[in-house]
Amino acid sequence: MTTVRLPLFPLNSVLFPGLVLPLNVFEERYRAMMRELLKTPEEEPRRFAVVAIRDGHEVAPSAPGLPDRTAVPDGGPAAGFGDEPVKAFHAVGCVADAATIRERADGSFEVLATGTTRVRLLSVDASGPYLTAELEELPEEAGDESGPLAEGVLRAFRQYQKRLAGARERSLSSGADLPDEPSVVSYLVAAAVMLDVPTKQRLLQAPDTASRLRDELKILRAETAIIRNLPSLPASELTRGPTSLN
Fold first, then answer.
1. Are strands 132-137 and 92-103 parallel, antiparallel or unpaired?
2. Of 81, 83, 82, whose CA–CA distance to 51 is shortest?
3. What pLDDT digit, counting tens, does each position of 142-170 carry?
């Protein structure tokens, strides 16, 4: 078992390998993380782990709480995640490699990172200025019939895109824009389809590529059928997602 200890960045979203993650970092605990990452030589990866929040708040409370309006909000690296932060997060996350970390005049950071490797969360340490975690790297197994499944998922994904864009409009991506390597297809589709966090998390932690693709095929067929029966759906808004505040 290969383990690694990395800074931990919890989000209300799921990061997949190969996908780009823009971040606007303004909380002090994450500013401290970025300042530390900037000490890493440019030729080395500046890595941190992203996990989806199961129970907690992406941004720590910054105002007195209820019912006591005079209460001081919790601070520190684990603010918003309870006494045992490891229980607040989903067990499988993704390592992110920060290609760009730019500090603004006000001390906040603009970060552009890319997901690389899936990891399993083993423990969380809140003793420093930001959370760190011990993580087990998870291999990506192909599984049975991943190639044919990827072809089927791509066909279903194109139909899904056409329904979102509108029957009279071109698909959002042509076939030439889409990959054909099964694991890449599985992660691209998982990130692109409009799903809630628990469903995306299920796809991230699938035991192998083939299992993820089978699940995606069912999801795409179901979602496309729903969109087909809801012609008034505001598709232009569905194809856009907000950037995380952090």
1. unpaired
2. 81
3. 999 999 999 999 999 999 988 877 644 44
